[in-house]
Please model this.
Amino acid sequence: MQLTLEFGGGLELLCNSVKIHNVDVDLQSQAGEKLTMKDLLAWVHTNLIKERPEMFMKGDTVRPGVLVLVNDCDWELSGQLDTTLGEKDSVVFISTLHGG
Amino acid sequence: MQEADVVKPKKNIGAGRQCTICNQRRAALKRPKTLEQICRECFYVVFEEEIHRVIVDNQLFKPGERIAIGASGGKDSTVLAYVLSELNRRHNYELDLFLLSVDEGITGYRDDSLETVKRNEIQYGLPLKVVSYKELYGWTMDEIVKMIGLKNNCTFCGVFRRQALDRGAALLKVDKLATGHNADDIAETVLLNILRGDIARLSRCTSITTGEDGPIPRCKPFKYTYEKEIVMYAYFKRLDYFSTECIYSPNAYRGFAREFIKDLERIRPSAILDIIKSGEDFRISTSTKMPEQGTCERCGYISSQKWCKACILLEGLNRGLPKLGIGRSRGITTDRSNDMKQSNGIKNIQSKQCGTLDF
Ligand SMILES: [Zn+2]
Ligand SMILES: [Zn+2]
Ligand SMILES: [Zn+2]
Model:
């Protein structure tokens, strides 16, 4: 599945200072089940985060203070970890934790 | 980045998620303050108008005043500069706005963030003044860290920055300094002041305007503005800000307080405003002695001691005794007791994280 992932607010420093990643996520979802944000976060953790993963994740979700937008919509409106993803979706992660 | 302007009608979002204000457009975010689901356009309106209400209700500015915006290049001050210049036009505040930046002399950090402020100067048409540690004190932060190591550098940074902003404001001849402190910052500071037992700061840190008795009053138009909304606003508006942590900021204590606030916010977003309210409701008992304000005999800056904190720190640097003045000391000849106070740690003023404007 082709996705555009964007890291901002300092999170790009955790993935080689690259802000925008066009990725092909080849996760085998269970028969008929859609890829969710929960799956994507685990994939990002394994494949994109190169250092200090604790700045990005806490438990199985993002660290509090990291904003997530799916197709430019706050993921708090779409079910957070349960948000389902489709082909060519965009997901943005922004840390609010860096200097004012 | 360009993606944002393309509204894709997608399954789990969109359908059934109409903006609760206009009932027309697709909701784009959930407001932490009210839990409303609103669209981008309505968000801009409520975000800006709430700040306008705070400014008017608290009489933060008077027509004709010259106002400096403490600009670090980070998200808060960038959004503040943008919103204040918008509101100034829209509501005819009749303010002369300036950007005021401090160059601490930190290679790879402040030089980059200053580039952001210089772009903001052009984008928002606000004149910029930069004051540097080097020209004010004769030392850059890089040189200070080379001398003292990484342990107490935030003491220097915090004390010097506070004074540098006042000096810059005086050079600009402004009436007031507006800073980008947001509701999350203030809640965090309330907690820290409780944890440190610092009653004087606890009662001061929730005030929307401070230093009215000093040279330049400071105000915080974002006192009630959530960090989440500031970052969302900057993202949706594509505002240009800088977001790298200060390389000399080892302050774990503040970091824990911040994390705790964010954890609370996730469970109950109103926690942030509730903590501010608690801070406001604390009253200082009459038995708590507040330090008297005088002026520094050396440089004339406000000080409750013979010499101000910056002069004591500078004296230490220039005499090759950088530990002088670290810890809440009295006077300048008591090196030994300073060191003792420092080692028990409790009264250490090393507390304000680098990159964060001091209250
Ligand atoms: Zn709307
Ligand atoms: Zn002085
Ligand atoms: Zn610093």
Summary: Chain A has a mean pLDDT of 90. The first helix of chain A runs from residue 37 to 47. DSSP finds one helix and seven strands in chain A.
